[in-house]
Structures are given as structure tokens and as C-alpha cells.
Amino acid sequence: MDEPAIIAAAQKGDVQAFNRLVFEYQSIAYNVAYRIVGDRDAAADACQDAFFSAFKNIRQFRGGSFKAWLLRIATNTCYDQLRLKKRRPADSLDDLLEDPDHSLIMSDPAPQPEHHALRHELEGAIMSGLQSLPEDQRITLVLTDVEGLSYLEVADITRVSVGTVKSRLSRGRAKLRDYLLACGELLPAHYRPKDDSAHESSPDTNEPRSVL
Length: 212
What we know:
- It is built from 8 helices and no strands.
- By secondary structure, it is mostly helical.
- The chain folds into 2 domains: about 5-85, Rna Polymerase Sigma Factor, Chain: A, CATH 1.10.1740; about 115-190, Winged helix-like DNA-binding domain superfamily/Winged helix DNA-binding domain (Arc Repressor Mutant, subunit A).
- The radius of gyration is 19 Å and the shape is elongated.
- The N and C termini lie far apart (about 40 Å).
């Protein structure tokens, strides 16, 4: 896809050209919105509003990453939606690796179809924890660990420095892990922290335990 040419056509009012951009980015926009607002219908509404706003303002796009520009509009729309409704979203997300890198990609050797069943059960637990985070940390986690965007891209989207992105990401990851460890009953048994009796460490140890 010749994106610059398509954007130029859309900026001249070509609706079909803009629809090609919608087709290209609707999936990532919806995924981001869903993980921010925590509700499928609300996420669909946020995406619709975001694309409508993008169409109205596409002449203001001055180059650079169109994806970052569009996701900035989408995340701002989600911010507005959360603040208007003043509600705590529901539950259901993707994956979380509890290794030191904190990637939100569950790496599990469990065979199929048990693996799918565990992942499905885990989604609700992680979305619940994700929705407990402050909005800025939640959005940073979604953009970085779920969508795989770089620090620079997230900084561009959220209009903060790379240092702030890293800080929000670190705090958000730690809070999400603490939430899951504190609410172990939300996790499938396969992912719950092991009982202290399974460890040789003393009861007073402050050493963190694995979710797996």
C-alpha cells in the first residue's frame, strides 16, 4: 500500500482512499480501545468516533507516522469516554508473561486444547487487573506490551517524553503483577502462585514468587 499517496488523496476529500486507511488500521484501533475502556460496544463506539474525527481533521496531518497520529486520536477518544461515563470497566484481555521482561505475551508450553482454555480463563483475570490501573499507565501498557509499539511511538501518541513512557510502563507492570498476585483466585490454577510450602525459603522472605 502506497500510504503517503492514499493519505494525500484522503486529504483531498477522497472517501474511498480514507476507507482504505480505515481498513488498514481498524483492527489495531479497536484492540487498543477495547483494552483501554474494557467493553466491546464502548470500544466500537470509540473507534467510530476516532475515525470520524480523523476524517474531519486529516488535512491537519503533516507527515510522520500516520498510525501514531491515528492512535493518538483513538486514545484521546477513550480518555474522553472514560471521563464522561466515570465508570470502572469490565473484564477480559489477552496475555501476560510474568517473567522479568513483563511482556504481555503469554508463553505457555501447555498442549492444545488445554492451552486455549487456560488462555481464555486468564484473559478475564488480566483485563480485570489492567482496568485497575490509572489511565495513563493502562494506555502505556496497552500500546507497548500488547500492541508492541516502541517507546518513541508511545511517546508520540501520548504526547509525553520517552522517560515518562518508561516510568509509566514500569509502574504499571509492577501494579498489574501485584494485582494478579494479590487476587490469585482470579487466575486459572495453572498460573497461581505456588504455595509457600512448595518452597524451601522461610515464611519471612521478601523474595517475589512466580505467577506460574
